[in-house]
Each structure stands twice: as C-alpha cells, then as structure tokens.
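Methods: example folding runs. The two proteins below were folded one after another, and each record is reproduced exactly as written to the output file, sequence line first and structure-token line second.
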Amino acid sequence: MNAEYQTILLYSGFQVLVTYSRKMFRNLISAFLIICSIPSFGQLITDSILIEKHYRVFYFNAPKTSGKDVSLMFAIHGSGDNPLNFMKNAVKLEGKSASENVILVYPKGYKSYWNECRKASVVEANRINIHEEAFFTAMILYFKKKYGVNEQKVFASGFSGGGQMAYKMAITMPETFKAVCAMVANMPTPENMDCQESKKAVPILIINGTADPVNPYTGGEMKTAGLTLGTVQSTDQSFAYWVKLAGYEGDAKSKTLPDPDTTNAITIESFTHKKRNKPEVTLLKVNNGKHEFQTDIDFFEEAWTFFKRQIAVK
C-alpha cells in the first residue's frame, strides 16, 4: 500500500492542498535537489525540437552575448546522465560566457542515452537509430535564428558517452563543427564502429585519464552500469587516428602542465601537433585520472581555450 502525503502550497495568494504518493514525493525531492544544485546565471531555458516523431530537449541559460558573431558550444552529458545534473561541471565557463561571447547548450540524450558510434551499444537510442545529426543541425539553426550564432563557430564537447558523441560529430559532420573535445572517451575499435567515417581532419582535443576503469586508457572492453559497450581503441590509437587524418608525421610536442594540487597523485601532460594550414590535434594525458571530472583541471575551460585557438586560425 502506497503512503500518501499532503502539503499546502501558496499559489497566486491562494492556499492549495496537494496530495501525492511516496514515489511521487521521492521524485519531487530528487528534482528539487537537482534544480537547487544548478548555479544561477539568469533564466534557465528549456526548449525542444521535433525530430522524426521524437521531441528532443535541450537546456541553456538566457544568453547575455552580443548577438553578433556568437560562438556556440555544445556540452554533451554522459550515458545515463541528464543536462540539469551535468551543467554544474561547466560553472566556471558559464560565468564568463557573456564576455567570451559564447552560448553553452546542454542537449538531452534520447531517454538519457545517445546514438553514438559504438555498434555494441544496446541502449534504445542506438537500437532504433535515433537521428542525432538531425538534432544537432536543428539546434544550430535554432541558435543562429534566435541569437545570432555564427555557423563557422560551432563546437562540440562531451564527457564519456558525450565524448563518444563529440567523436561522432567529428566523424560524420566534419564541415559543421569548427572543433571538438572528447573527455574520458576513446574511439571505438574498427569492429565496433557503427558510423560511416568521413575520414576528414577536424581540430580535436582529447582528455583521458590513465586510471580510468570505464574507458580503459590502453583500450579494451567498455562496461558501465552493467552494460557492455563493446571495445574501444587505446588513447594513443585514438590520438593517432586524428593525427594521421590531419597529415602529421613524427612525434607530438610534449610538455607537463603546472600542477595546481600537489596533495594528490594527478599530473597532466600535453601532446600537441600544430602547424599552419593543418588542424590542431592535442591530447591531455591525466596521469592517475579516473572516469570523473578533476580538481586539477577544468575540462570545459580547457576545451574553450582550445576552441578559441581554432577561431584565431585564419
């Protein structure tokens, strides 16, 4: 038997008695906690676009950008996550989005998952072949019409399953995205590749941890929440894939980044191929990093710094 709860809410000066079940109460509390955890940058806007009989949802904070030559940056959540929970990871970049003239957009996966390029994925988005390219194309047009986004300054960044989506955008829509950033994500192995590869070079930043138990740095089977997602290449192989497409040869330029927190075991190395008239390809190797956001580095600020370098390239 489900217990019932009652409370009195004030609405437009009237008292309203609300009755709800224990399950509904838990859901309300969860939603309330998520909303309260979201930093306030003004009005949070939710909208949706109908794509092949499915309403696809996205979130963004009301832009305070100039309305001219605006950049658009997608921040794509991981498998099983949601935009409202995910956006707290971009709080620093959101805080300066107006001065940087960039709009951050947090799209929602179909039933919290994405139809990315891993063939072995058993999630519904993959099984029914949700049209992600149409969704992102429609969002770009939406922000171009409403907020003056420059279609030549569109970027994709994502974490985990969202990182797989960033790869997909680069693989299947290279002309659409100025650059992409894949966080804690390796490329699928050839036998696990479910996308038609354009084989076109795109500026890309990869950020991976060497101690990641979900996305193995040295490659292998991916497992999360009891699901197998097939095999992925190693980080070095994923990096090499884009290096080869960009036409680079030889070793990358390497350096160790400053360590802002010497109390932990995290250190970060950077490996970069960058030449005039070629797309930049950079790897940030997070030594001892796991499948999580780090305190030593802000992933989204690093992604935006990388993206800005691509804007500056003439």
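Second run, written to the same file directly after the first:
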Amino acid sequence: MFIVTTTNSKFVAALCVVLLQATYALYSTTCCQAQHFDISVWVDEEGQLQGSPQVSTGIFEGFFGALSQQNPGFSASNNVFQMGDSLGFNVVEPLLYSVGDGVSAPPGSEYIEINKSSSSIEVRATSEFEEGFILGEVGSFGGIHEHMEYVLLGESDPPTPGVYGLVIEVTSPGYEASDPLLVALAHLDGDFDTLGQIREGVAHLTAYAFPIVGDLNRDGTVNLEDFAILKENFGISDAGWSEGDLTGDGIVGLPDFTELKSNFGSQHSALAELPPAAVPEPTAWALLVCGMFAWLVPRFLAAGSSSNTSATRVNPMLNPSESEVMAMP
C-alpha cells in the first residue's frame, strides 16, 4: 500500500513534471519536426533575394489549446551572405482564407500572430502591409537558418477551419526584397479535414497570390468579369492591377485590353486539376473575344481623334448594356 506523505507528494509532482516534459518533447519530435521544412534563400546576379518554393504548405498543430506552426523556416547555404548581414521579412498582402471555393477574408475575424523571441506582428484581413522583423544575423560562414512561430488566433473559439494564406517577401539590408512567396497553413476540424480540401484551398490561394495576366479579380480565370473591370476603368490613370493596369504604366488603356484579350479564357495552372466550372465552349470564347476587340477599337480611335492633349482622359467604353456585350458577333 502506497501512503501519501509530504515527501511522496513532492516526488509525484516532480514525476508529473518530468512526464509532461517528456510528452512535449515526444510531441515536438513526432509532429513538429516531422513537418520541418524551410524556404531556401539566395541572391541572384542582380542582387535580388530569391526564395523557393514559391508556395509552402503546412498544418496548424494544437497543443494545450494553441494552434501554431513553426514552419516554414528560412535557410541560406554557406557563402550566400556576408558575415553580419541579417535576414528578415515583410507581409505584403492582407490575410487570405479559402476552403476551396474562392478566396475571402477569414469569416471569424481570425488573424495570425507571427513571433520570434520578443518580436511579433499581427496579420489580419485589414492588413495591407505589415513590416516584419529581423529573424537573425548571418554567421561567419555566410549562411543562416531561422524559424519563427505562426499562431492562429481570433474571436471564434475554436478558429474557423480552412486554409489561411500569408503573402510574404524576404528582406535583407543591402539587397532587393524577394518576389512574393505564399505560406499556406491549414486548420483542420469538423468537415474540413481531408488532404483534397487542403489542396483545393491552397490552389485558390495560389491563383489569388500569383494571378495570371488578365485575371483582374484574381479568381483564377480570365473572363467577362475581368473585362467588365477593365471596361469600367478604361482611361483612368494612377491605376493598379485590380483596376485594369496590366502593363504597369499606371494607365488603363488599349495595351491592357490587348493583354487581357490575349489571355481571355485562360485558367490558372493551380486550378487546372480542380473540378471545372461551367464555361462557354472554346468557339464561343473566340467569338466573344473577337467581338470585344471589334467593339472596343473604333471607340478608342474615335475618342482619341476628338480629344486634346490635356491630362483629362476620355473613357471610350460608353458603358454598353449587358445585352449589347452579349450580342457582340
């Protein structure tokens, strides 16, 4: 018979702490390290940082009620940098969310806290740009390997299942920031718990983060919705991608329409293996594109011949009705 004494109770408490620490170590080894992966970083000939893979996918892991993930990390081989250089990051898009039927803001006001040591930032659906922090300094051999923690938080308890997307750039003083990279982290629960659902969510996030030419609304396809956006904004200046500026000159004009026309009907490669949505037959696409071009050019030329050289631009679209657009030959 085991008699509980003060000494015994202290021993039992100490034993419980040891077992708890062993359990956590086992969890970290079997779960966290099994998913260990990094974004490889290097510098190209022009002095711009590069990162690979372009899309990193992981799963939030729950332990003691917290949903977190420490991957991906960031690593650079020896001799990539100089001793004393540092590596950091920024988040360049709002927090994205998908369950495989498009991209939206997280439905439960969820956000992701990114932290390392005493540094942390919060990325929400309202974040346009979040300046990150320095992950670490490069060692004497010119390489670096650092991880930070991604924690899923929000008003709903537990957070809404789905795939959450962070669009980041890697930074280092003295080098040009990398092109955007996507970190897609899934929270599995309830009806959202299969590999296929994760793949669908990641595919839609990928199509949104890296849109194909002409996909102004970033839904993965170039179609009438994108044409309508370009038509509405035709002639404006100080425009961005979402307004129809596909050439990067700040103006929505005929060159942008030509870019959209050349890719009309295309679908993002990330969505290619997903169940296709109902779309017009290829012949219908071709006729529609030709009709758009035949309708647009005379209006553009007429507007150009009647305008002066002032900064005010005339919109030649003239806002045709939907029936007029659909009636194009």
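Comment on the second run: The helical segments are 6-32, 195-209, 224-233, 254-262, 282-306, 322-326.
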